[in-house]
Write a structure and sequence with these properties.
The chain has 16 helices and 24 strands. The protein is α/β, with parallel strands linked by helices and 503 residues long. The structure holds NADPH dihydro-nicotinamide-adenine-dinucleotide phosphate (NDP).
């Protein structure tokens, strides 16, 4: 039985032409230019977007600024903001299939996976709604009889929210509801490759009664107007998810006006497995971690660090499970791995595989294009004999490629795990609690999974160390991240004069 699912032609699909949400109205770009998105899995045009200019970005920022400085949003009761966020969650739920369809055709990821991403997003909007009402500051009643100290939590202001193409709806949902819960206003810029679901969210926000200017959404190329979003003096904070390279430049520009930044960047996440682990569970997680979202995932767990005594056994089992992975039509509910985002990215993945071979790695499985009649599909790929110094062992491939490295002793496993510039996530597999704790505490990563991989819930913070990022999303502090503190130092009674105290 073939595990490749031939895509069906998107017959009769009329690509929508999206406008941008600026100052409460759907608007065209000032230049009148648009761009088209080709579905990576089907090769047909599935969306036309406005190509925003610097002038559009400035209008969007001005609108968010006005809404923050003079509008009702930051001033209303948290209970009202919470009610609004719940309403948005309900609307997302009512439009679950529609949103999933948009993300699927634009990003090439499997529909069943996107549906669960949307369910995750709904849960996050509800979680943010609950946090909106629990934001509070501090008070100090122990500073002496003349002083009362109060530390207020205020919304930070206008936030530029910049998101990547690989989890379009999920990632905007990890940022926007928390910014809104805090009372901020925002300019949102989705990736030029997958803007549809974020623009659609704009309509849901309006339907839910969002006041004018609180959220502005612009589409187009980050290279054209991104510097305005990260550098304009009227923006107070940048919340960015994307590559480490673009994140670093964004931070440098934001530094000129001393903006707060939150950065969710790349990863090269190790899964370390010991001989006493539940190998069946590990093999399943290795295949999932390597091929989920076609490996186009900051959290991909594709760097397997396997004890040398089990490396052969584990490699065989991963190869045999990999052969069963259903690759193909993103719209088919059976599909587990969809299309690669663009032909250019496909070439990048292929060049990593070619480079690995030149450096001495072996392709134990896959490594080639799957010809499914249309779209860009890559076979699940396993690289063996990978050494820590090879490029594929420490750079993000962002494709369905698993690299297998081996170790002899625990400290070596940790050294290999920590030998990249990244530190997003990691996992450890063993039945021995001491081994799990030693690895968990020694590995430099924002999240460590123990005997599992890529589980998540809004309660648990997510983010990276080293060049994987700065700050955390989700978790109970996520609303606080979009605030600034203000100290009120209150004097009670007659103040002691400077002259008296100097006498
Ligand atoms: P990019 O860094 O290329 O783009 C991210 C966003 O930044 C896009 O919206 C992009 O716009 C925009 N952008 C581009 N240039 C600028 C600029 N000069 N100023 C401001 N914004 C700009 O990343 P990708 O979209 O390629 O996403 C893949 C990367 O994202 C991977 O490295 C991955 O690891 C990382 N990622 C990290 C996650 C995490 O939580 N840690 C989660 C998901 C992905 P445009 O599309 O128009 O170029």
């Amino acid at each position: 039985m073939s595990h490749y699912i031939t895509p069906k032609i998107l017959a009769g699909y009329v690509a929508p032409e999206y406008m941008m949400l600026i100052d409460g109205a759907w608007q065209k770009s000032q230049s009148g230019e648009t761009s088209s998105r080709l579905a990576p899995g089907h090769g047909t045009i599935v969306g036309r977007y406005q190509s925003a200019t610097v002038a559009d970005a400035k209008l969007a920022i001005a609108s968010a600024r006005k809404a923050f400085d003079h509008g009702p949003w930051p001033r209303m009761k948290a209970a009202e903001r919470s009610k609004f966020l719940h309403k948005v969650a309900d609307l997302i739920e009512q439009n679950r299939e529609k949103i999933a369809h948009l993300d699927t055709i634009e990003s090439g990821k499997p529909i069943q996976q996107v549906l669960s991403e949307i369910d995750g997003a709904i849960d996050i909007w509800r979680y943010a709604a609950s946090l909106a009402r629990t934001l509070y500051g501090e008070s100090y009643n122990n500073l002496g009889e003349h002083t009362l100290g109060i530390v207020l939590r205020e919304p930070i202001g206008v936030v530029s929210i910049i998101t990547p193409w690989n989890f379009p709806f999920l990632i905007v949902s990890q940022k926007l509801p928390f910014a809104l819960a805090a009372g901020c206003t925002a300019v949102v810029k989705p990736s030029e490759l997958s803007s549809g679901s974020t623009l659609f969210l704009g309509q849901l926000l309006l339907d839910a009664g969002l006041p004018t200017g609180v959220v502005n959404i612009i589409s187009g190329k980050g290279a054209v107007f991104g510097d305005v979003l990260t550098g304009d003096a009227d923006v107070d904070m940048i919340s960015f998810t994307g590559s480490t390279g673009v994140g670093c430049s964004a931070m440098a520009i934001a530094a000129r006006t001393m903006k707060k930044v939150s950065m969710e960047l790349g990863g090269k996440n190790p899964q370390i497995v010991f001989p006493d682990a539940d190998l069946e569970a590990f093999v399943d997680a290795a295949v999932f971690g390597g091929y989920f979202n076609a490996g186009e995932c900051c959290n991909a767990g594709s760097r397997l660090i396997v004890h040398e005594s089990i490396v052969e056994n584990v490699t065989d089992r991963i190869a045999s499970l990999s052969k069963r992975v259903r690759v193909g039509d993103p719209l088919n509910p059976e599909t587990q791995v969809g299309a690669i985002i663009t032909p250019l990215h496909f070439e990048k993945i292929s060049s990593y595989i070619a480079g690995a071979k030149e450096e001495g790695a072996e392709v134990a499985l896959g490594g080639e294009r799957l010809d499914l009649g249309m779209g860009d599909y890559m076979a699940p790929t396993i690289l063996t004999n990978v050494k820590p110094e090879m490029k594929v062992a420490h750079e993000e491939i962002f494709g369905p490629v698993i690299s297998i490295l081996k170790f002899e002793i625990k400290t070596e496993a940790l050294d290999i795990a920590n030998s990249t510039q990244f530190g997003l996530s990691a996992s450890v597999w063993s039945k021995d609690i001491d081994t799990c704790l030693e690895i968990s505490r020694g590995v430099r990563a924002g999240t460590v999974w123990v005997n599992t991989f890529m589980d998540g819930t809004p309660e648990l913070p997510f983010g990276g160390v080293k060049q994987s990022g700065l700050g955390r999303e989700l978790g109970r502090h996520s609303v606080e991240d979009y605030t600034e503190s203000k100290t009120l130092n209150i004097h009670q009674g007659a103040r002691t004069s400077w002259w008296v105290s100097n006498a």
